[in-house]
Structures are given as structure tokens and as C-alpha cells.
Backbone:
């Protein structure tokens, strides 16, 4: 699967390596092009997953605010619910399309 922003692949991995949570595909950290992510200051805490880190997605010149997110340290109970450790996995939305 691929996460595509503005015609550029931001992340790519086999579907079996992704984790599907609440309608979002989470990509393994190693599959994400880190140079296309920039930490955002947008705060959010999910009631059951914990503290979220948003990222702007871009190419250095143009950025799409908060188009990716991750849970660096999800709550242990969330890992139990998902049945897999999704720490630092990255999900995309808004201006990023996830394709098979």
C-alpha cells in the first residue's frame, strides 16, 4: 500500500505490515519517508489511544498541515485492544491518499 501526497509517495509497505485502526491504515515507521514529515504543534489526546503527534506532510517548499499522525507511546490498554504495538506507526488523512 502507498500513502501519496501531491503525486509523491510518502510511505509504502505491504498491506500485511500495516495496522488498521478506526478507518485508518497505520504504516510501519521504517516505511515512511521522514524527510516528508515535519512535527506539528497541534495538540490532541485520544481518550483510548493516548497522546497523538501530528505531522505536516510536504516536500520542503509546500506543506499540508496535520495530514499525518502517530502515537509515539500509546496506552498499554490500546495496544491490548489493537493486539499489536502500533507505537510510532504513521497514519495519513486530509491531503494524503492511501492506495492499495
Residues:
Amino acid at each position: 500500500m502507498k500513502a501519496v501526497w501531491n503525486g509523491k509517495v510518502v510511505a509504502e509497505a505491504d498491506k500485511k505490515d500495516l495496522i488498521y485502526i478506526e478507518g485508518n491504515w497505520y504504516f510501519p515507521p521504517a516505511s515512511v519517508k521522514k524527510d516528508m514529515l515535519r512535527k506539528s504543534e497541534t495538540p490532541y489526546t485520544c481518550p483510548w489511544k493516548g497522546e497523538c503527534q501530528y505531522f505536516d506532510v510536504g516536500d520542503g517548499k509546500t506543506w499540508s498541515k496535520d495530514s499525518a499522525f502517530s502515537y509515539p507511546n500509546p496506552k498499554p490498554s490500546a495496544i491490548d485492544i489493537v493486539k499489536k504495538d502500533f507505537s510510532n506507526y504513521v497514519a495519513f488523512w486530509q491531503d494524503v491518499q492511501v492506495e492499495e
